[in-house]
Amino acid sequence: MWRTATLVTFLAAIVSTTSAGADGGQAATPPLRVLVVTGGHGYPTSFYTLFEQPGLTWDHETTNEEAYRRDLVSRYDVLVLYDLSRTLSPEGRANLQAFAESGKGIVVLHHALCSYNDWQWYRELVGANYLLQQEGGRPPSTYSHDETIPVALARPHPVTRGVAIAEVHDETYKGMWFSPDVTVLLTTSHAQADPALAWISPYAKSRVVAIQLGHGRETHDHPGYRTLIRNAILWSAGRLP
Q: Is residue 17 assigned to a domain?
């Protein structure tokens, strides 16, 4: 199933183009082409509004197999992963990996951190993984619904520029595997959560932003979270300095 840019976003792009021309004939920057991937976990429709922001056009696939059934490099600038998928065909894995290795942007949200526990490449791409079952000596990760989560800035970064979130009502994850080389952007002191709430993956071939928050409407509607998502998309595509 495809979901295209809204009329509001389209009109905003037209206004932007007109303004650029009036300012001296410079070509306007085209909207980013975003593919949003869902499936394997429910979510409120408020999630869709995150992509109805200026500078973005987006399509939507409701399964990972549909999303990665073909080459994506020429079609999109950024992938936003919001699926919880345990398996993916060899062809799908190859197309996702080719997109990442092309240098295009990837934003990984909430339950997409739980995907592909058996795929080491995906774990390295994201810089973290929610463990669905015991792994070696590590117990499964845990979650807790309906928590009030304090949020703190770990360091200045373009992804967190203008993001004002003191706390958010959302779901926590705890006991995830993390790469020691992630660059943490947002943290929490909540007892039922891992300290890192948002981070930059150390994956070298593309810009990958991972954000643990994003379970429900309260978060999707939060102005600070909306800014965080837009910044993450723009930065992953090289549009924010």
A: yes
Identify which of 94, 95, 91, 130 has the alpha carbon closest to the alpha carbon of residue 110.
130
Two structure tokens written together for 156: 């200045």
- Do residues 204 and 78 lie in contact, with contact meaning Cβ atoms separated by under 8 Å? no
CB atoms under 10 Å from CB of 70, counted, come to: 11
**Amino acid type, 2:** W
pTM value is 0.89
The average confidence (pLDDT) of the chain is 91
Task: Look up the CATH number of the domain holding residue 11.
Answer: 3.40.50.880
| 180 lies in some domain | yes
Structure tokens at 16: 């932007």
User: What letter would DSSP give residue 77?
Assistant: S
- CA nearest 127: which of 209, 64, 55? 209
Task: Assess if residue 87 is contained within a domain.
Answer: yes
The reply to whether 2 falls in a domain is no
Q: What is the pLDDT of residues 82-133, one digit of tens each?
A: 999 999 999 999 999 999 999 999 999 999 999 999 999 999 999 999 999 9
